[in-house]
From TrEMBL:
<dbReference type="Pfam" id="PF01494">
    <property type="entry name" value="FAD_binding_3"/>
</dbReference>
<keyword id="KW-0560">Oxidoreductase</keyword>
<keyword id="KW-0274">FAD</keyword>
<feature type="compositionally biased region" description="Polar residues">
    <location>
        <begin position="21"/>
        <end position="33"/>
    </location>
</feature>
<feature type="region of interest" description="Disordered">
    <location>
        <begin position="1"/>
        <end position="49"/>
    </location>
</feature>
<keyword id="KW-0503">Monooxygenase</keyword>
<keyword id="KW-0285">Flavoprotein</keyword>
<dbReference type="InterPro" id="IPR050493">
    <property type="entry name" value="FAD-dep_Monooxygenase_BioMet"/>
</dbReference>
<dbReference type="GO" id="GO:0004497">
    <property type="term" value="F:monooxygenase activity"/>
</dbReference>
<dbReference type="GO" id="GO:0071949">
    <property type="term" value="F:FAD binding"/>
</dbReference>
<feature type="domain" description="FAD-binding">
    <location>
        <begin position="85"/>
        <end position="436"/>
    </location>
</feature>
<dbReference type="InterPro" id="IPR036188">
    <property type="entry name" value="FAD/NAD-bd_sf"/>
</dbReference>
<protein>
    <submittedName>
        <fullName>Related to salicylate hydroxylase</fullName>
    </submittedName>
</protein>
<dbReference type="InterPro" id="IPR002938">
    <property type="entry name" value="FAD-bd"/>
</dbReference>
<comment type="similarity">
    <text>Belongs to the paxM FAD-dependent monooxygenase family.</text>
</comment>
């Protein structure tokens, strides 16, 4: 792990007698090394060492070393120990991970069981913590003209659509968190990742179903009998992951039904444009969520505004085996009857829908097999309800963190240590996001009454444009915002790595 002490370090020796001028991952230099116009014009103060959470320190960093965190980083620091890595699963998580690894110089093969690459469902949100990484990795180019940037997120009352909560996204999210909040068609997101992966030389193979993992050997056997070996196997094989059981030593910890289900659908925008009662929904790009007892409906436009995406969630404890997709459309309409007439008008414009059970996992004891040659990430490791719109974002972060931690080593014997650091950081981050997602289900689904009234009251200042220090709306609450959207998975992994090395050194001394 010596590299954690030098290459990507930057500050570890700072407290031990001096400023260290070390190259940053993006090839730029630290303030002490780079001629920085902002800092040469201003009085330069040594940044204090602090351990308490403080946005004031962010401010000091910003004025002393302004940089665009989401600028395309076309020459990332390369791994000193380039590895052959197999990623199982060509979903959003697998492809994002392949990009994160390939751009650092690893040789990556993605194995996808499907005959064709693709994504189920229509829209997906790409929150700032994910778009920061994607833009940095050069994926943004492939999303240009396809992703939509909503102006804000409006939480509405189930009965009449009146505003209960409001999160302003433009320009706050880009200004504060360094990257915009986007919504996009899943197919476009997937295509963008695929294109960037190919550009980076990732070998993406379809029709390659892994039937056996060998975690001691770092090999996989495909359904056609072929065996493929690597230095490391990354299983991004989704919620039904077969690798998870092996990582957990034979006792799988499967994600379980949460008692929530969602209807997923799209509406042709021409229909909405033709109806004067609801056309306002398309006036500007926005995210709207109607919330009520046991249910909520999330809407936004995708495909550069050509399609209107809807996710209609409700409490449903029945066995998914008993669900009949032929009745899904009627069931969905019945489920939301009596809701805001403008919303139900749009619900009646839906021609077809799929009902989806929402499952969630609980924090796993580990993500990395004892051999340190197989690990899981993405939904395989941290399935969650989609109420923070962060499932795929967490998978993108996983990929970023893995590539970063592998950059901190220069010999194979350090791989187990590096993967432990990765596992610890990602377990904490994703477990908290699982909880935050579940919390939205609680906050949004109160029946009308004192709790609902107190919740609406707690969000009122943001609707009225008043200053607030906290909110029951997690998108707006300043503490939740900085934690969720102000997280840079690469920087956080580097910090975790530095801390782990310092810890190791102090224990050895
Ligand atoms: C209703 C809903 C709305 C959501 N909205 C959002 C949102 O707005 N924002 C967000 O960030 N997330 C959202 N999510 C979550 C997001 O969709 C998932 O977290 C994400 O797609 C998981 O990606 P993954 O690559 O880990 O898994 P998957 O997408 O499940 O990919 C796994 C891949 O592995 C392949 N595979 C599996 N087994 C094998 C095998 N043995 N051999 C080879 N290949 C194999 C599969 O075919 C599949 O392609 C939402 C989820 C739902 C249900």
């Amino acid at each position: 792990m010596n590299d954690c002490l030098d290459e990507e370090k930057g500050t570890i020796n700072g407290g031990e007698g001096g400023s260290v001028s070390i190259k940053q991952p993006n090839g730029t230099k630290t303030p002490s090394e780079a001629p920085n116009h902002a800092t040469t014009r201003r009085h330069k103060t040594n940044l204090p060492t602090i351990s308490h959470p403080s946005n004031a320190l962010r401010f000091l960093h910003k004025i002393q070393a302004p940089h665009n965190a989401s600028a395309v980083d076309s020459s990332p620091l390369q791994a000193e120990l380039p590895l052959n890595i197999i990623v199982v699963g060509g979903g959003l998580g697998g492809l994002a991970t392949s990009i994160a690894l390939a751009r650092r110089g690893h040789s990556v093969t993605v194995l996808e069981q499907a005959h064709e690459l693709g994504e189920v469902g229509a829209g997906i949100q790409i929150p700032s913590n994910s778009s920061l990484l994607l833009e940095r990795w050069g994926v943004g180019t492939f999303l240009a003209g396809k992703a939509v940037e909503p102006q804000g997120i409006t939480i509405r009352r189930w009965q009449d659509g009146s505003k209960i909560g409001y999160t302003k996204l433009i320009p706050e999210f880009r200004e504060n968190f360094g990257a915009s909040y986007h919504v996009v068609h899943r197919a476009h997101f997937h295509e963008a990742l695929y294109s960037r992966a190919l550009q980076l030389g990732v070998d993406v193979r379809v029709d390659c179903r892994v039937v056996t993992y060998d975690d001691e050997d770092a090999s996989v056997e495909l359904a056609n009998g072929t065996t493929l070996s690597a230095d490391l196997i990354v299983a991004a094989d989704g919620i039904k992951s077969a690798a998870r059981q092996l990582v957990l030593g034979g006792r799988d910890q499967k994600p379980k039904p949460t008692g929530f289900a969602a209807y997923r659908a799209t509406v042709d925008v021409e229909k909405i444009l033709a109806d004067p009662d609801v056309v306002w929904l398309l006036e500007k790009p926005s995210l709207d969520i109607w919330i009520g007892e046991d249910r909520h409906v999330m809407t936004y436009t995708i495909a550069a505004g050509k399609s209107f995406n809807m996710v209609l969630s409700h409490v449903d404890r029945s066995d998914p085996q008993t669900w009949d997709n032929k009745t899904a459309l009627d069931d969905m309409r019945r489920e939301f009857s009596g809701w805001d007439p403008q919303l139900t008008k749009i619900i009646y414009m839906i021609n077809k829908t799929i009902k989806w059970p929402l499952c969630a996992g609980t924090p796993l004891p580990r993500w990395v097999a004892p051999s340190s040659k197989l690990l899981i990430l993405g939904d395989a490791a941290h399935a969650m309800v989609p109420y923070m719109s962060q499932g795929a974002a967490m998978a993108v972060e996983d990929g970023a963190a893995l590539a970063m931690v592998l950059n901190s080593i220069n010999n194979r014997s350090s791989i187990p240590f590096a993967l432990k650091v990765f596992e610890k950081e990602r377990l904490q981050r994703t477990s908290q996001m699982q909880q935050a997602s579940m919390a939205n289900g609680t906050i949004w689904h109160f029946p009308d009454g004192p709790q609902q009234e107190a919740r609406d009251e707690a969000m009122r200042p943001e609707v009225e444009g008043k200053h607030f220090l906290s909110s029951a709306n997690q998108w707006s609450d300043p503490v939740t915002q900085w934690w969720a959207y102000g997280y840079d998975a690469e920087a956080a992994m580097k910090d975790a790595c530095d801390a782990a090395v310092s810890d190791l050194i102090s224990k050895a001394c």
